[in-house]
Design brief:
The protein has 287 residues and is α/β, with parallel strands linked by helices. It has eleven helices and eight strands. The strands form two sheets. Strands 3-2-5-6-7-8 form a six-stranded mixed beta sheet, sandwiched between helices. It has a two-stranded antiparallel ribbon with strand order 1-4. Strand 7, helix 11 and strand 8 form a beta-alpha-beta unit.
């Protein structure tokens, strides 16, 4: 039926639906060359603030807990918002993953989601996660299964990965990677709103803001020589985000606060090394 619409003049067809059906990446495979994917994301913080009745501090306090799902904006009580996000994550996102891919080890999928939610912005990979499952959860799940489950969650638009990029070498480095949640409200709901670590959530919010503005986003790594105990030592410094949009490249450090000169120097050091290497702009996002 959809193919029939393609032969009609002055008709645009828009296909939406559940992730449990072939309506995410499969759409573009099915209609290759005959359509475009329109990615609809949860509200970024800047979009959220356009309709928020309050100042940016009040908006930030609200957004870092309940995120940018549009329907949340119409709810008045914290209880309503929390219940909606918890049910949305469980009954839509996870159920779609289980139904679509026939996941049989549901308990291990749940555990993986919890581990990723607890460690947003932490460098990891399937091998590291396998070790965590063995040592902490006493599970024998393999790294291959973990890798598959992560792919399922990415296809369902639950998480996105950020790869490491060598700023000086101008090339990608292998694993580990970082994973961020597409919506911090869903992430918080998954953990029962118990781990509201503002600095980590801010990093996730900055990542989502950049993605919403059309940037591809990597985690930057830059090597720098430092003097320690009378000898030169090479250290790898991390630039939180290397954001690219066409010819535009921006380096960003995310820090909740920089109350001391030492903290400011620590946060700015990777950017200074990056600018020395490429003479590009580096911004420090602080709150």
């Amino acid at each position: 039926m959809l193919n029939g619409l393609l032969r009609m003049r002055n008709v645009d067809a828009y296909v939406t639906g559940s992730n449990s059906k072939p309506l995410s990446h499969d759409v573009m495979t099915e209609f290759r060359g005959r359509g475009d994917e329109v990615r609809v994301r949860p509200l970024s913080f800047s979009e959220f603030m356009q309709g928020f009745d309050g100042d940016r501090y009040q908006g930030w306090a609200e957004y870092t807990v309940y995120g940018g799902m549009p329907l949340v904006r119409s709810m008045r009580t914290d209880e309503q918002k929390a219940r909606y996000l918890e049910r949305l994550f469980e009954e839509t996102y996870l159920r779609d993953v289980v139904d679509r891919y026939g996941v049989r080890r549901r308990g291990e999928l749940d555990d993986l989601v919890n581990v990723l939610a607890s460690g947003i912005g932490t460098l990891t990979n399937p091998s590291k996660l396998e070790n965590t499952f063995k040592s902490v959860l006493h599970s024998k799940i393999s790294s291959n299964t973990i890798s598959s489950y992560i792919g399922y969650l990415e296809d369902a638009f639950v998480i996105e990965e950020a790869r490491r990029y060598d700023v000086k070498g101008r090339g990608y480095i292998g694993s580990p990677l970082k994973y961020y949640f597409e919506d911090v409200g869903l992430r918080n709901a998954r953990l029962g709103f118990r781990q509201i670590e503002e600095s980590h959530i801010m990093e996730n919010v900055v990542y989502n803001e950049l993605r919403a503005r059309g940037y591809s986003v990597d985690v930057g790594v830059v090597e720098r020589r430092v003097r320690e105990e009378g000898r030169d030592v090479r250290k790898q410094l991390e630039v939180d985000f290397v954001a690219n949009r066409g010819s535009d490249r921006v380096y960003i450090q995310s820090a909740l606060e920089m109350r001391t000169p030492e903290k400011a120097a620590q946060e700015k050091a990777p950017c200074s090394a990056s600018m020395t290497a490429l003479r590009r702009l580096c911004l420090c996002a602080t709150w």
